[in-house]
Recover the amino acids of this structure.
């Protein structure tokens, strides 16, 4: 069991250096990871799968209908804010480049992308009407 804790601690320490975590967050994360490692270990595999079951996040799959996942920390949001990226030391532009996203692509979930597009169209219609 000692082994799992050490490994979990390493990961949590790395996480804590890139984002703000309360003591409670840290403890619960260590426990969760250690438990995960234990399960993996018991299953006979080597503790390789450190991320959540499906491994590293594929940027193309990070954008879902109702959430967008930050590929850096794996957290899900409705939209990824500048402020959040700044906590990883990235700008929006750098993040897009990192993910291979198109220039100017909004970092929002699909649902919000559609809403945004709709709003833009409405605005354009409104503009036309004024002229
Ligand atoms: Zn993040």
């Amino acid at each position: 069991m000692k082994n799992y804790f050490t490994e979990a601690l390493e990961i949590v320490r790395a996480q804590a250096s890139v984002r703000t975590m309360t003591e409670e967050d840290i403890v619960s994360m260590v426990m969760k990871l250690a438990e995960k490692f234990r399960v993996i270990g018991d299953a006979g595999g080597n503790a390789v799968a450190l991320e959540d079951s499906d491994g590293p996040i594929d940027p193309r799959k990070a954008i879902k209908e109702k959430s967008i996942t930050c590929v850096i920390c794996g957290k899900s949001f409705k939209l990824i804010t500048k402020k959040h990226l700044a906590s990883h030391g990235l700008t929006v532009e750098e993040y897009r480049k990192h993910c291979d996203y198109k220039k100017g692509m909004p970092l929002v979930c699909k649902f919000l992308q559609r809403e945004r597009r709709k709003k833009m169209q409405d605005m354009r219609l409104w503009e036309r009407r004024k002229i």
About this structure: The beta strands are 68-69, 76-77. The longest strand covers residues 68-69. The two ends are 72 Å apart (CA to CA). The mean pLDDT is 85.
